[in-house]
Amino acid sequence: MTTANTDNSAGPRTLRRGLHILQTLQAHDENGLSVTELSRLTGLQRPTIYRLLAALTECDFVQTVGKTRRYAATKQVLAPTETEHHLVEIAKPFMRELAFKVGDAVFLIIRENNNSLTLWREIGPYPVQILGTYVNKRQPLGVGSAGMALLAQLDDDTISQIIESNSNALDHYGGMTQREMRQLIDNTRTRGYSVVGNYAVRGALGVGCALCSSQGYPLFALSVTAITERMPARRQKEIARLIHQTLEQIAEKI
């Protein structure tokens, strides 16, 4: 009887604690709070806070602040589906212009927990197009160039959790390994843009860049994908410049 009562109360108690953490984060500014500060403000033990933060982060109620160990409540003015629709409508003309300029396909990607989600794509005028993803397609975060651009902006602990969670799925993408993914992350951080080839689509190479909030959290990414022969290093750098330019144009309209 005692065990049953304890089990019945565990769910609501956990929910109350999770909401307490969320409300505490919402009451503070965008610089966020550390686990130590959350423990002091809520009276909860650090292991409990870590467990609850992991769940809140996975559900996108909470996010890490840049590459720090601080946490902030996710602030969304619109419901997620409305937000995505709004973003697509703003991005479309700029993506279309970019696709026409470079000749190749352009993709708009967001993070959805441990995956990337394609919101939109525009096809360029070049006769051979690489259409490795499509609207509403999900795949492990980092196997595509836009997803890699998003992944590389996250803190190291979150990256490790995502890679570990997706480890069994990575082999389906050209035999990508955890070690190769970490190397791609390092390369992306060094360059300032991602270059990913021959994983999601054989014979293809993509260049991706992410737009981040003022706190350093990746909001969404754009990528350009083409056949490998069209992507020498010099053109990769030029395409990255054009993508950054397009991201800035979109940001001004949001």
TrEMBL record:
InterPro entries: ArsR-like_HTH (IPR011991), GAF-like_dom_sf (IPR029016), HTH_MetabolicPath_Reg (IPR050707), Tscrpt_reg_IclR_C (IPR014757), Tscrpt_reg_IclR_N (IPR005471), WH-like_DNA-bd_sf (IPR036388), WH_DNA-bd_sf (IPR036390). Keywords: DNA-binding, Transcription, Transcription regulation. One of its GO terms (molecular function) is DNA-binding transcription factor activity. GO terms for biological process: negative regulation of DNA-templated transcription. Residues 12-75 form the HTH iclR-type domain. Residues 73-254 form the IclR-ED domain. Pfam families: HTH_IclR, IclR_C. Transmembrane segments: none annotated. Gene3D superfamilies: 3.30.450.40, Winged helix-like DNA-binding domain superfamily/Winged helix DNA-binding domain. SUPFAM superfamilies: GAF domain-like, Winged helix' DNA-binding domain. This is IclR family transcriptional regulator. The lineage of its organism: Bacteria, Pseudomonadati, Pseudomonadota, Betaproteobacteria, Burkholderiales.
